[in-house]
Structure to design on (203 residues):
């Protein structure tokens, strides 16, 4: 497994960007449920948190433990949650930007620089950001943002499962697994499903 580190952040810290924020989203490709973004700031000169990696590659237990450690050791973190209704109305690209925006707003801090996984921020000057391909495998801040967002969203989907028990949201978290597709075929779409995704073509 590839573990993320602070090498990019250290370069930025040395240039005077003291508050560097890592941002990532989870749930973008799901059939159902909200889109969630995380934003995390570590202080200049932070030491490595052991085990930081792409959240999808970690076990739920490891993610939970790391999420708690990230919140303890960071100097700020924020979550941005965008509901299905907004995803369907605005489209997934605009919804992603909105989730990023909400996560940054919920930091309640003014950051000097932003590191984002894959997608540039449309609401921040390009001179103050860098989008990294597979950023959650490289940057500790982005990996941390991915982890807290994943833990938050997974917990939310487990709670939503209680309202929609037929679909198994507690297991697949809204992703298009075979079981999920079979349940959609059997029960139809719920209000939690993203109608704009044309899910029928996958069934």
């Amino acid at each position: 497994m590839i573990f993320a580190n602070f090498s990019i952040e250290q370069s930025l810290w040395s240039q005077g960007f003291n508050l560097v924020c890592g941002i990532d989203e989870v749930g973008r490709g799901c059939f159902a449920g909200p889109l969630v973004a995380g934003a995390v700031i570590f202080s200049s000169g932070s030491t490595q948190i052991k085990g930081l990696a792409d959240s999808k590659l970690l076990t739920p237990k490891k993610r939970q433990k790391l999420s708690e450690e990230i919140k303890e050791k960071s100097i700020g973190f924020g979550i941005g949650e965008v509901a299905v209704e907004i995803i369907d109305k605005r489209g997934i690209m605009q919804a992603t930007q909105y989730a990023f925006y909400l996560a940054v707003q919920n930091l309640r801090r003014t950051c000097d620089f932003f590191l984002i996984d894959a997608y540039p921020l449309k609401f921040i000057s390009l001179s103050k950001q860098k989008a990294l391909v597979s950023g959650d495998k490289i940057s500790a801040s982005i990996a941390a943002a991915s982890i807290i967002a994943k833990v938050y969203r997974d917990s939310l989907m487990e709670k939503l499962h209680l309202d929609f028990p037929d679909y198994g949201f507690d297991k697949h978290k809204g992703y298009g697994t075979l079981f999920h597709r079979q349940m959609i075929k059997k029960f139809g779409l719920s209000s939690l499903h993203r109608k704009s995704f044309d899910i029928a073509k996958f069934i």
Observations:
- The beta strands are 20-26, 35-42, 76-82, 113-117, 129-132.
- DSSP finds seven helices and five strands in the chain.
- The two ends are 33 Å apart (CA to CA).
